[in-house]
Amino acid sequence: MFPLIDENKHVAQLLLNSGTCPRCIFRFCGVDLHAPYKLPSQELLSDMQKYLKTEKDELVLEVPNPPSKKIRLQELENGIDNLSQNGEDRLCVTDDGSIASRNSNLSVCNVCLGILQEFCEKEFIKKVCQKVEASGFEFTNLVLSVSFPPQLSVREHAAWLLVKQEMGKQSLLLGRNDIVQLKEAYKWITHPLFSEELGVPVDGKSLFEVSVVFAHPETVEDCHFLNKVCPDCFKPAKNKQSVFTRMAVMKALNKIKEEDFLKQFPCLPNSPKTVCTVLEIECAHGAVFVAGRYNKYSRNLPQTPWIIDGERKLESSVEELISDHLLTVFKAESFNFSSSGREDVDVRTLGNELCDYHPFQRQVGLPASSDGEDLRKINESSDKIQVRDLQLVTREAIGHMKEGEEGKTKTYSALIWTNSAILKEDIEFLNNMKDLKIDQKTPLRVLHRRPLAVRTRVIHTMETHYLDEHHFRLHLKTQAGTYIKEFVHGDFGRTKPNIGSLMNITADILELDVESVDVDWPPALDD
Length: 527
Description:
By secondary structure, the chain is an alpha+beta fold. Helix content is 29%, strand content 23%. Strands 6, 9, 10, 11, 12, 13, 14, 15, 16 and 17 form a ten-stranded mixed β-sheet that branches. The chain has a three-stranded mixed β-sheet with strand order 3-4-5, covered by helices on one side. The chain starts with 5 loop residues before the first helix and ends in a 10-residue tail after the last strand.
C-alpha cells in the first residue's frame, strides 16, 4: 500500500514536478514508516508516478505561453501563484496533457541534492564499507555520522514553506517538526545496509565511528543571501574555513521572516546538474579504558616521567613501562595514565596499587585470548614492575577509582630511625592508638605544586616491630592522602602530632612501602 494519503496527493504532485525525489516527498508529507524509504530509487519513482497518475481533465494549470492544446489544471494554479518568478520554466506539458519536469526521471533531487538517491544505494554503501575494512580497526558495532552541506538546510526551508502553504489551503497545519529530518531518513535506509555488509549492528552508543562528509560545490552560493539579511548570524571562526556553517545557517533560517526569504530564494529551487560529492570517509575509535593493578619494586622509579625544565631525571617510569606495550597492542595515537594515589620515586608498591590507562583511537582490540600474552610481555619487559588484573572497563567504571578518594584506606610499612636509643617498651604504646587525628600543613617538598592548606587526616591503626636501639618498623593503616613521611619526622612542626613528638625524640623515615590500596576494583582475575 502506497504510504501517501489523499490530502498529500496535490503536494506530492507539485514536489515531483519541481524535481523532488520520492523519498523527500515522503519526508515533507510526514511519512514516518521506514519501509517505503528502503525501496530502490527507480521503483519508488515508478510507484510515485503511478500513484499520482490523474485524468487529463481533473486539474487546470495556467502556464506562461501555453501550447495551443487547452489544459485544464486549475488546482495547480493555486499551487504556484507565489512561485511565478522562479517556477515558470520548471513545469512543462507533454503531448498527452500530463505534467512533467524538464528534468529527466532520475534527475538530481532539488532538495536533498542526491543524498537520498544514489548515496542510499548498495553500491555506495559497499564503497564506504571497503574503506572501513581497510582502516584496520577492530569493532563489534559502529555508529554512523553524516555531515551534509549547509545549503541543504536552505533548500529544505524553501520546500517546507511551499508545502506549508499548500497544506494551509486545505486547512491543514505543517510545522517544521512534522517533516522527517534528512538524517533520520538517511539512517533508516542505510543502517540495515551497513549492518548487512559489515556483519555488525549500528549502535548509537558505539565507540567506533564511521563519518561521511558530503559537499555540493554547485550550490554553495545558496546560503549567501542569508549573510546579507542576517549578518549577525555569521561570525568568522578560527577553526572554520567558511562562515556558512550548518549551525549559522540554521540560526539565520530561524530568524529570517518568511516573506524576506521568499523574496531572496526560489520555492522550489531548480534541480542541480550534479549530485553531492563525498569529501571524506573517516573511521575513528573513542577512548578505550584499560584498568589493572601494578607493583613497583624499585626505589629509583617515578610513577610518571620525571622531567624538569626539559631535562629527564630518570630514564623510565611506571607509566612508560606499562604504556609502551599497550600502545603497540591498541595502535593508539595517544593515552592518559592515572592511578589511585601517587607514590614517591623512592617508595615501593608491594600490594595492590591501582592504575588506569586509556588509549585513544584504538585500532586493534584486546581479545580475551591475548590478555595473558600482553600481560606477560609487560611483566617480562622489566624487573622494576609487575602488572596484574589487566582488563577492559567502561568509562563509567573508571569512577570507582576516584570515588571516595579521601574515604578509602591505604596500608604502609615504614622503616624508622631515631636519634636516641630506644627499647621495645618505648614504642609499644603506638600499638594501642586508634583513629589518631593529625593536622598536616602542605609539606614543604610539595608546596611548589600543591596549594597551602591544613588537612586533617586519620591514622587508623599502627603496629610496631622493634629492630634495634635506633630502628623499628611501623605498619600503618591510614586515611588516603596522608603524608606518611611527614607523619614520621614532623616536617619542622608542620604535621602535628607526629612520631617524633609522640615519642619525644627526633625520628626520620628510611624506607617506605605501600602494601595495599583498599579499593575492591578492578575485580581480581583468575591467573
